[in-house]
């Protein structure tokens, strides 16, 4: 999650535990509140946040107002809206829309709430968190779509066998075509999970030819990204330098992967 600093930057960040992110400005705080309301803990407005707003960003008046909301669950939404207003981050129509989103979250069932959290984590590429949320949602109330989302998060975590088992189960029990399609692509991605012999007829009847075209187009697009073009040009120019930079890039990929798990 890359954010832009538009106002005063704090000397010390506010650590937002749910996203494992340090926030450095009012803009960053407002961005998180606005875009990820389903990930906000009930106690997001507490003494620690008020102290940070006052001492690090100079929002003394806002901090004093927020303190009066602490411990009052029914005023939590008012506190969030006040922060967005004082941060001058949203137009009034956006605030009204946000208020409606907060109200909608309040009436979600536990399973629906967990699923929404999984969707948010998935959009942030926090795949382990997404998987945990989908698992919780599925334990609270079974849903083929939620189970398929759980398998999708397993693919992102390279837990291919677990993903394949779920896709196969969903196809066998629910006749979910989307699960069959994902099962086919999983076999293309990871040969050890190829179920071509078992489902050859099903793949063919469901649209294998179209899927092959999609897969080929995706590979072509991936091969023509600017990063791949630069690496290819570097290899042709200096193979030794390419190996050095490739090692550094792999190290970054590993660090990024660990941060998402």
Order of helices and strands: EEHHHHHHHHHHHHHH
CATH superfamily of the largest domain: Tetratricopeptide repeat domain
Secondary structure class reads: mainly alpha
- Tally of DSSP β-strands: 2
CATH topology of the largest domain: Serine Threonine Protein Phosphatase 5, Tetratricopeptide repeat
Q: What would you say the CATH architecture of the largest domain is?
A: Alpha Horseshoe
Portion of residues in beta strands equals: under 5%
**Quaternary organisation:** single chain
Q: Give the spatial strand order of the biggest sheet.
A: 1-2
Report the uncertain regions.
Answer: 1-5
* CA distance, first residue to last residue: 15 Å
Total count of domains: 3
Give the class-level CATH name of the largest domain: Mainly Alpha
Radius of gyration: 23 Å
Characterise the protein shown here.
It is a single chain. The chain is an all-alpha fold. The protein has 3 domains: 14-106, no CATH class; 110-223, Tetratricopeptide repeat domain (Serine Threonine Protein Phosphatase 5, Tetratricopeptide repeat, Alpha Horseshoe); 228-259, no CATH class. The chain is 70% helix and 2% strand. The chain has 14 helices and 2 strands; from the N terminus they run E-E-H-H-H-H-H-H-H-H-H-H-H-H-H-H. A two-stranded antiparallel ribbon has the order 1-2. Helix 9 (160-174) packs antiparallel against helix 10. The longest helix is centred in the C-terminal third of the chain and has 21 residues, at 239-259. It is globular. The protein starts with 13 loop residues before the first strand and ends with a helix. 25% of the residues are buried. The model is unreliable at 1-5 (pLDDT under 50).
């Amino acid at each position: 999650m890359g954010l832009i600093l538009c106002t005063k930057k704090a000397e010390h960040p506010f650590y937002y535990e749910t996203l494992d992110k340090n926030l450095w400005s009012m803009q960053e705080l407002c961005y998180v509140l606005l875009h990820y309301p389903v990930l906000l803990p009930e106690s997001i407005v507490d003494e620690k946040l008020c102290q940070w707003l006052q001492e690090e960003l100079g929002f003394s008046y806002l901090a004093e107002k927020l303190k009066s909301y602490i411990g009052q669950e029914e005023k939590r939404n008012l506190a969030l809206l006040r922060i967005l207003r004082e941060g001058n981050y949203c137009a009034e129509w956006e605030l009204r829309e946000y208020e409606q989103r907060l109200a909608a979250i309040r009436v979600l069932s536990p399973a629906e709430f967990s699923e929404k959290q999984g969707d948010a984590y998935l959009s942030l590429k926090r795949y382990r968190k997404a998987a945990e949320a989908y698992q919780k949602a599925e334990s609270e109330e079974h849903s083929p779509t939620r189970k398929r989302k759980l398998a999708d998060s397993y693919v992102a975590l390279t837990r291919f066998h677990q993903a394949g088992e779920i896709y196969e189960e969903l196809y066998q029990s629910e006749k979910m075509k989307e699960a069959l399609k994902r099962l086919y692509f999983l076999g293309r991605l990871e040969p050890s999970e190829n179920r071509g012999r078992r489902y050859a007829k099903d793949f063919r009847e469901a649209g294998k030819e179209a899927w092959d075209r999609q897969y080929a187009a995706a590979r072509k697009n991936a091969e023509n990204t600017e990063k791949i073009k630069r690496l290819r040009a570097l290899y042709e120019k200096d193979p030794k330098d390419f190996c050095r930079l490739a090692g550094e890039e792999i190290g970054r990929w590993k660090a990024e992967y660990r941060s998402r798990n």
